[in-house]
């Protein structure tokens, strides 16, 4: 009988290969398995991103000579954007819109609803949650139709209730309207997230706080918020990004009147499609993407500091 001794280095290599190939597919079959997914990602994510970067460096337009003879102009579109007062006004409006309707409005109202409903059970809770969720799940076009019917200056529901016939809410208070509109649309997400977070707070800690004489707001400050801090950060990050990128207010005001609700997503659309400046619109889209990444990194950094 012949006994062969396998060198220790060869044994380690075999163990490493087995650990790297847990599914036992082998390199070829594993590549064939993930290949379609990678192809879809490249086709629908990677290629559009690269194409957008390229367009942002050209003077491409939908019509005119620039549409037939596109030129590479480098960073001129970015220079034009940063020197345009309309861009900075749009960014300012976006910050206001995100802060009021997202960070403050949806987060605070969603938490308030979740905190208020924690003791409600049965059909009453289901009805209340269903009413809030209805505003979240219906399409944006239906949202817009309902609010236009509510705020219409001629026979609108709000004017009929208040007796303010002829009041043009969308013209006189456009930013207030889209802030309230976005709060109404998106609060359900925060409510559901905070409801799940509150259900995970240890009852023993709340009972100990009550026995120590802590009032409701003291329990909230000393027990509840420390336990759900991670959920608060997650909710705030997602709401911030969603609100920053939302296009739904366009269905109500189309950015008007006189650009008073032209948030960044609407400004990019107006520049690229009706304005025909696809090159500049692509550059603005890249600026918007970079701002999104900065926001996400800021929240991630805050989250790491608190863990």
Care to describe what's here?
Helix 6 crosses helix 10, helix 10 runs antiparallel to helix 13 and helix 13 (229-245) packs antiparallel against helix 16 (278-306). The chain has a single domain, classed as MetI-like fold (Orthogonal Bundle). The chain has helices spanning 8-20, 26-55, 65-68, 76-82, 85-117, 123-137, 140-151, 157-162, 169-172, 174-199, 203-211, 216-227, 229-245, 250-253, 264-272, 278-306. The protein has 307 residues and is an all-alpha fold. The radius of gyration is 27 Å and the shape is globular.
User: Can you summarize the main beta sheet?
Assistant: none
Count the DSSP helices: 16
CATH class type: Mainly Alpha
Mean pLDDT: 84
Which oligomeric form is depicted? single chain
SSE sequence, one letter per element: HHHHHHHHHHHHHHHH
Q: Uncertain segments of ≥5 residues (pLDDT<50)? A: none
Shape: globular
State the gist of this model.
The protein is mainly alpha-helical. It has a single domain (83-306), classed as MetI-like (MetI-like fold, Orthogonal Bundle), CATH 1.10.3720.10. 75% of the residues lie in helices and 0% in strands.
Secondary structure topology:
Layout: H1 8-20, H2 26-55, H3 65-68, H4 76-82, H5 85-117, H6 123-137, H7 140-151, H8 157-162, H9 169-172, H10 174-199, H11 203-211, H12 216-227, H13 229-245, H14 250-253, H15 264-272, H16 278-306
């Amino acid at each position: 009988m012949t006994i062969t001794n396998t060198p220790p280095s060869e044994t380690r290599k075999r163990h490493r290969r087995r650990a790297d190939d847990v599914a036992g597919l082998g390199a070829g079959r594993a590549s064939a398995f993930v290949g379609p997914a990678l192809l879809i990602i490249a086709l629908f994510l990677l290629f559009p991103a690269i194409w957008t970067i390229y367009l942002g460096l050209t003077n491409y337009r939908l019509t005119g000579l620039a549409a037939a003879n596109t030129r590479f102009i480098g960073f001129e579109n970015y220079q034009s954007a940063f020197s345009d007062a309309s861009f900075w006004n749009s960014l300012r409006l976006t910050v206001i819109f995100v802060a009021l309707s997202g960070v403050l409005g949806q987060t605070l109202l969603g938490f308030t609803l979740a905190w208020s409903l924690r003791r409600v059970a049965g059909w009453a809770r289901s009805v209340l949650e269903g009413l809030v969720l209805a505003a979240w799940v219906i399409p944006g076009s239906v949202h817009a139709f309902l609010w236009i019917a509510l705020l219409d200056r001629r026979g609108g529901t709000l004017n009929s209730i208040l007796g303010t016939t002829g009041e043009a809410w969308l013209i006189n208070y456009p930013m207030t309207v889209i802030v309230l509109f976005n709060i109404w649309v998106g609060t359900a997400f925060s409510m559901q997230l905070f409801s799940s977070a509150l259900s995970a707070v240890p009852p023993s800690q709340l009972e100990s706080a009550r026995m120590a004489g802590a009032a409701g707001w003291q329990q909230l400050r000393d027990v509840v918020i420390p336990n759900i801090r991670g959920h608060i950060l997650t909710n705030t990050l997602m709401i911030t990004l969603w609100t920053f990128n939302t296009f739904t207010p366009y269905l109500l005001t189309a950015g008007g009147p006189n650009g008073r609700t032209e948030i960044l997503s609407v400004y990019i659309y107006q520049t690229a499609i009706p304005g025909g400046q696809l090159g500049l619109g692509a550059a603005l889209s890249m600026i918007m993407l970079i701002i999104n990444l900065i926001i996400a990194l800021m929240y991630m950094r805050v989250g790491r500091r608190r863990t």
